[in-house]
Amino acid sequence: MSADAVPAKPKTTARDVLRALRQPKVLTMLLLGFASGLPLYLVGNTMGYWMREGGSELSAIGFLSWVGLAYSLKFLWAPILDKTDVPILGRLGHRRGWMLLSQLVVMAGLAGMAIVKPEGGLVTFGVMALVAAFASATQDIVIDAWRIEISESGEELGLLTAGNQMGYRGALLVTDALILILAASIGWAPSYWVMVALMGIGMFAVFMAREPASSRLPEVAGHAPLLSATGFFDAVAGPFISFFKTHGKWALLMLAAISLYRLPDFVMGPMANPFYADIGFSKAFVGEVRASLGLVSTILGIAAAGLSAVRFGFVPTLLAGAVLGPGSNAAFAWVAYSGADHGVFMTAMAIDGFSTGFAGTALVTYMSSLTSIGYTATQYALLSSFYALLGKVLKGFSGVAVEQLSVGRSLFDGYALFFLGTALAGIPALLLCILLVRRKPAARPGEPAALAPERPTG
Asked: Which of 24, 31, 97, 282 has its CA 20 to 30 A from that of 141?
């Protein structure tokens, strides 16, 4: 062996991954992931189910889904969260204080929706949903920053991301499945009050969490205060400059791939629950399938993506997700043509659970690997905004698209064509991911090269 030779890094086994899941920070991440995912469908797809049962038009449901644009614009206020402490609650720590405040406002917004209800006026109901969405997006910014900053290596980042996605997807199943069973029994408004109470899990996790050393205010780390001219410029422009300096000519390609990656899911999302209501599936049946088969398949998809990221690297895992994700949309076209066949629906839900679990974890892990220490919250908010912005703008027209595709056809033909069209929208992202496979990843700024995500050569 030559003097310059470096011993090969031993491969991480599945046993190593399972052992790491016992770490306290991974359990905390699981609970924070649950809190992060809980509001999403309550101001989105599940809200659409509630509205459809109340007689709202598909076009109104589609347009009201635009409250979710708060998740795509969060990079606008992310610099404030990177550079300031929240008053009073900041005593808990820079990240933990903002987490707790955002959770309290989410609870207030969801409670407002339960009080107003769609029949109380769609405008007021929509405002309450927007408050919850804004606070939820703020919570996401801080939780994502905490996840990245608390990681001590690229592999641990992959494990924490898998834990985050496990909790996040668990919350989606609660708000997209169990709530349907609950609503069938006690009604929609009381079910939303139950969800308000469940946000307490996130508050508990805040007190479990350890404040990352790297999350201390930038002026402590040698940066200028936010209210100074230099500090303001650094807060607003610094994350962009750092990102493009680090990734060079690949930066725009990476942003394009991220922005198109989950486009099929976003565009289809608002029409899924109205489709189930129109085709005749009961809330209880849909909820039971999602809570059983959907839960198992989602967990398998998340676990598979986490293992893949650790063993094969972030970009190959991203490529696999670009194939799996749109495939689940095509499965729902099969449901539309099946005539409400329960077996077909269950198969489609299994495909959807595994595919979305895998693709979501793959994308989050990849985006997390691209951030720079010191700009964690803002850069990740920027990346996650890119991944959601286009899809959330277009999904507002989803109801109009189904209505237009149904002209001269049956409603279910319109749904089927819509689902197939959203699946085909995944092709550009797949092509961009193929190009990204050729890029050799670099270390994150402020991070030792040894911690940079590796791309296997074998």
From this structure: 24
